[in-house]
Amino acid sequence: MSALVASSTEQDKVQALQRTLYRAAKADPGRRFHALYDKVYRGDVLERALVRVRRNGGAPGIDRATIADV
Q1: What does the pLDDT look like over 17-54, one tens digit per residue?
Q2: What pTM value is reported for the model?
Q3: Are 4 and 43 contacting, i.e. CB atoms less than 8 angstroms apart?
Q4: Considering 8, 18, 40, 65, which has the largest number of Cβ atoms within 10 A of its Cβ?
């Protein structure tokens, strides 16, 4: 089991953010999101992403950064 396991409350917050952004995009397909940085670097979002990457055996991306680098 991973040492980083997001609590269900944190997962709920991340899912709520994802749903909100999804609904906004679907309601207005031409909408442009200009201020997402504040949402991307939230601790709960980053932790959830890292857990998902570890679970799927994530490989380095275009920047060649590995899980160990992070």
Answers
A1: 999 999 999 999 999 988 888 888 899 998 888 888 88
A2: 0.63
A3: no
A4: 18
